[in-house]
C-alpha cells in the first residue's frame, strides 16, 4: 500500500506492502519491547551480575554519557567501518538508549507513538511550518 504524504505533496511515499514479511526490520519493535522489559527487570538485579544494574547504579549522567559515546562510535563505524561493525555499534546505541529511557521512566511506546504521529509528514514540510523566531 502506498501512502501519500499527509500534506498532500506526495513528497514521502511509503510502501509497506513492498517490504517482505521476513524482513528483520519488521520484528525490531518486538525486539525492543522485549529488551525494554528485560532492562526493567535487570535494573533491580545485582550490579555484580548485571550490566544494566551496574550502569543504572552509576546514575543518569553516566547512562547519558554512554548513549553519546555509542552514538559517536556508530558515526565512526558508518564512516570508516564495515556493515557488521555498523550493526554492532547501532545495537549498542539502541541498547543504551533503552537503558536511558528506562532510567527516565519514559515508556518505549511513547517513542513509537511519536514516530507514528510523524508518519507521512515530510521532514522538509515540518521544518518549514515551524514558527519563525
Ligand atoms: N543488549 C545488551 C547489550 N548491548 C551491549 N551491552 C553491554 O554494554 C557494555 C558496553 O561496553 P563498553 O565497553 O562500551 O562499556 P564499559 O567498558 O563496560 O563501560 P565504561 O565504564 O568503559 O563506560 C558491554 O558490557 C556490553 O556487553 C549489553 N548488555 C546487555 N544487553 C541486553 O540486556 C540484557 C540484560 O543484561 P544484564 O543486565 O547484563 O544481565 C541482556 O540479556 C541483553 O539482552
TrEMBL record:
Keyword entries, A-Z: Amino-acid biosynthesis, ATP-binding, Cytoplasm, Histidine biosynthesis, Hydrolase, Nucleotide-binding
Known catalytic reactions: 1-(5-phospho-beta-D-ribosyl)-ATP + H2O = 1-(5-phospho-beta-D-ribosyl)-5'-AMP + diphosphate + H(+)
Keyword presence, ATP-binding: yes
EC category name: hydrolase
Span list, region Disordered: 6-29
Cross-referenced InterPro entries: HisE, PRib-ATP_PPHydrolase-like
Pathway where this protein functions: Amino-acid biosynthesis; L-histidine biosynthesis; L-histidine from 5-phospho-alpha-D-ribose 1-diphosphate: step 2/9
Keyword check for Metal-binding: no
Entry's EC annotation: 3.6.1.31
Main location as per UniProt: cytoplasm
CDD domains the record matches: NTP-PPase_HisIE_like (cd11534)
Any single Pfam family the record assigns to this protein: PRA-PH
Localisation: Cytoplasm
Family (UniProt): Belongs to the PRA-PH family.
Alphabetized HAMAP family for the sequence: HisE (MF_01020)
NCBIfam families for this protein: histidine_hisI, PRK00400.1-3, PRK00400.1-5
Protein name: Phosphoribosyl-ATP pyrophosphatase
Organism: Novosphingobium panipatense
